[in-house]
Amino acid sequence: MDVQVVNCMTCEEFVRVFGNVVERCPLIAAALWSRRPFSSTLELENGFNEFIDSLSIEGKEGILRCHPDLAGRELLAGTLTVESRGEQGQAGLTSLSSADALRMNQLNSQYKEQFGFPFVICARMSDKDRILQQLESRVRNQQLQELQCDIEEVKSICRLRLQDIYNRAAKSTK
Ligand code: GUN
Question: What is the pLDDT of residue 45?
Fold first, then answer.
């Protein structure tokens, strides 16, 4: 997608296209629209990162709380966003054995009890075994260290979701 196309979008179009770059946080896209014109698509990605970094601790925790649990209730209920469903599928979380699903649910609950926000990891850069291993080790982190760790994962998720949007646009103009 050419950055000029992005710069010409109405706020409504921009939120429709970029509204789920940060999971269930369309407000961030709506806020970034005011920063047009962007000189490149990289500048837009940097905009997402800077916006997230500029938030207070409560704001960052709010972003995390908009993320569904991995292999959680929403996956079973079929209520995940398209992006999250795809990412969880790519990490193999849609075909877990019942023992692995139970283990992941237990660890997700333990993690949320410990920190007050859900465990976030860039699922597409991981797989079931690594996610379970990360859950087990990160639950022992300090609160602030873990908040920052989750936020860095959110930024990786954003980068891949933006790439998907650009790739889809490039394909549709071929
Ligand atoms: N990693 C990639 N997508 C997601 C998601 O939707 N939720 C969580 N917790 N982690 C993710």
Answer: 97
Q: Is 75 in the pocket of ligand 1 (CB under 6 A)?
A: no
Contacts of 134 (CB under 8 A, 6+ apart): 119, 121, 126
Residue 103 pLDDT? 97
Q: What is the ipTM of this complex?
A: 0.89
With tokens 């549709």, the residue in question is 172
Q: Ligand 1 center to residue 10 CA distance, Å?
A: 28
Domain at 62-156: CATH code = 1.10.3330.10
For this structure, is 61 an active site residue? no
In degrees to the nearest 10, what's the CA dihedral of 122, 112, 22, 82?
70
Segments of the chain scoring below 50 in pLDDT: none
Residue whose C-alpha is closest to residue 81's, from 24, 37, 125 = 24
Find out whether the beta carbon of 107 lies less than 6 Å from any atom of ligand 1.
no
Confidence at residue 174, expressed as pLDDT on a 0 to 100 scale:
65
Check 60, 67, 128, 138 and give the catalytic one.
Answer: 67
Domains of the chain, residue spans: 62-156
